[in-house]
Amino acid sequence: MAHITEVGRKKGTAFEVHWRDADVKKMRTFRLRKEAEKFAARVELEKAEGRSTEPLISRGQTVAQVIEASLAASAQRLKPGTLAGYRTLYAAQIAPRFGAKRIAGVGSQEIEKWIADLVKAGLAPNTVHNYYVALNKLFRYALRHRLIAHNPCEAVELPKVTVREDFAPVFLTAAQVETIAAELDKTKPLGTLIRFAAYTGLRAAEIAGLRVRDVNLAAGHIEVRQTVKRLGREWVVGTPKSARSTRQVPLLNRALVTELRTVLLSNPNSGDPDALFWPGRANGSRRLDWTRPIDVGGVRQYYLVPAAQRLKIVGHMRMHDLRHTYASLMLAAGFKPYEVSRWMGHANVSTTDGIYGHLYPSDYTDQIARFEAFVADG
């Protein structure tokens, strides 16, 4: 049974709550008797329901301590890039504001004030939303481990998230893809790379992770098995985004197959199945380096966007827009949504519907004929 002891301190009277948990003596100190009595009641409730009282003590942990515990617990589940992203978000805006506070002492009003300050500082709603997601993840971890009684993020209202104009999807036509690729054919093999991205729909990290063994020209398909992503100065090898992202993607453009064969013949390491398929660049130069992963972000910044602007095709685009282009071209060519979903490695076809549903063909000729025949038959 928990009992309260009044003790004298230099700064005044304090109240200690003493109890046993699994024959181990426990104690917490409070400034007010009322707080001590409430805590003692919680101790008795936990013991009566057969639960450990350790989380009651842990509620004194700071937000900074819980951040480290949460990241450590997530290290085995999250991909390195995702984990690094959370660490960056925590370090930038969350730890400076809440790090020294007790996790159990942060309330929803304080979080709303923090969000208002982020908006006032000029951060975009999407960016504010990302910080909120990271903070909410932290409090969900704390709630799961009974470090807090409830998640204060659940009562918080966020600014409306809008699609930024520079992040709106860009859908190129096949002619525009060829025009940009032809412009970049001057810097081999970048023209082929642009065609490859637009005609296979691979993600940037999947392109960088392709090995010689993954480009099966005889069978006419690409095998997506690994990713390579840059984190700071390091290249990190990982796995595709989801189980369905490990997939085969058909090569439906015979001219592209011919170009890929040329790239393969140019690769001095083509005899090694585990060698990278696409070449990177040597440090500080434009010289091809077949031992380094291709920096797809650099290709976009220094080649793709400038070429698209010179040709007056589009003012801004991301490498991911070539993946959007692939989806639009496949759907326009008459391939079924479930086929496109499988080739793109979406977790399910509803993801494809949500992103590209507006691109589905809307020719209702057959349906109109069937309905009119039905009505005519009375």
Automatic annotation (TrEMBL):
One of its GO terms (biological process) is DNA integration. The keyword DNA-binding applies. Residues 61-143 form the Core-binding (CB) domain. PROSITE patterns: CB, TYR_RECOMBINASE. Residues 167-370 form the Tyr recombinase domain. Coiled coil: none annotated. GO terms for molecular function: DNA binding. Keywords: DNA recombination, DNA-binding. This is Site-specific integrase. It comes from Protaetiibacter intestinalis. The lineage of its organism: Bacteria, Bacillati, Actinomycetota, Actinomycetes, Micrococcales.
